[in-house]
Amino acid sequence: MNSRKLEILVGFFVALGILAFAMLALKVANSGISGSGETYTLNAKFENIGSLKARAPVKVGGVVIGRVESIYVHPQEFLPVVNMTIDAQYLCRFSDTSSISILTSGILGEQYLGIHPVIAPTSAEQRCLGETVTENKQDEAIDDLFGVESKALGDKDTITDTKSAIVLEELIGQFLFNQGSE
Amino acid sequence: MLDLFQRLGRKTLGRFAALGRSAHMLFSALAHVPNFKKGTPLLVRQLYMVGSQSLLIIMVSGLFIGMVLALQGYTVLVGYGAEDSLGPLVALSLLRELGPVVTALLFAGRAGSALTAEIGLMKATEQLSSLEMMAIDPLKRIIAPRFWAGFISMPLLALIFSAVAIIGAHLVGVDWLGVDTGSFWSIMQSQVSFQQDILNGLIKSFVFAIVVTWIALYKGYDCVPTSEGISKATTETVVHSSLAVLGFDFILTAVMFTS
User: Fold this and answer.
1) Which chain B residues are closer than 8 Å to A15 by Cβ?
2) What is the pLDDT of residue A107?
3) Residue-range domain boundaries for chain A
4) Where are the transmembrane segments (chain B) (predicted)?
5) Order of strands across the sheet that contains A161-163
6) Cβ within 8 Å of A, B 143-182
7) Which of A102, B67, B234, B258 has the least C-beta neighbours within 10 A?
8) Across the interface, do A25 and B198 touch by the CB < 8 Å criterion?
9) Binary contact (A13, B159; C-beta < 8 A)
10) Is the model's pLDDT at B189 over the cut of 90?
11) Above 90 in pLDDT, residue B153?
């Protein structure tokens, strides 16, 4: 066999391999949040995480904006702390009054984190990003109303308002307890 | 009684000596400055023998394995109303396990046995010795390009296998059994991760490539230079590399996919 034909066939083989790789990478795998895009981290402390696992999605209104990075037990308080990475475009966009809860997709589905966002006021966002704060009457009025300066969630901040996973046994236990007391 | 111990001892020493010889063969074949000008034509020729010629069997078996997976997966999943999860089921089992492993097994049967027989016959007809007489190192001239060809081809073949199998699964699942094409792809995309699944599968096939090619080359290089010896070496290549692939697969899966 002459070497030109041979080289063409090898080239065809290698091209097919690269094509297969491209198809698998682009069409089969998720090229998005779990990729190498810019992210920042948030923490949240729960009473009980149910069966939440690392790599579970973090959603806002059903849209995935991040993933659970790791879960560990707080060394002093013995409470599970969930560490998650969030898409960097949401950096400093959520107010620290946002709440996070562990939800289940479907009846038998996986558990995921749902953030109920409270949009951070412009001044808080600017403070969090380290920019100069522009005067804004409306934001000041809100701060005065609550008596505290509102804060935005930046890198490595903790969401304090958390709702734990629903554990079936606890639910049944509570139900039975309520039945008994009636 | 002592004879028994002697037999055991001889066997053990023999095994270790073989391991040493094979490591020495691979090391002296690869540990030198590559000469791209001379090496490339040799490598291209071997890529053709090992890679291009395995393409057909890999693609056909990939297509059928994908189709069978989709058919069987569908029968089970439809009972739970979860036939939309057919995509991730097929993609994950292919990318993580079946793609690298079945490719390696087919590769051992298709290309590994050919390598062993070819080198064994070269040894039997004293072509290797004549190369040495001409001051050409047979390790560099014969072994090295074949090793690199196997090392490059197998991951490519595994990728092609997985891709073709997913297309086969799509053919059966979507076009025949009526799974929704949108959810087939989108649930697959949400479940399959590039680093965790595709890259780990690729690492697996690189490891299998080293194992299978190494065993095939060593068995040929070390065979008894008779027709009987070559036939025995060829059989051993297929048996040993298949077992090694399955064993390594378990170890790699345990390391990669258990957290």
Assistant:
1) none
2) 67
3) 1-31, 39-166
4) 53-77, 89-108, 147-177, 198-218, 238-257
5) A157-159, A39-45, A80-87, A63-73, A57-60, A111-116, A99-104, A161-163
6) 153, 155-157, 159-160, 162-164, 166
7) B258
8) yes
9) no
10) no
11) yes
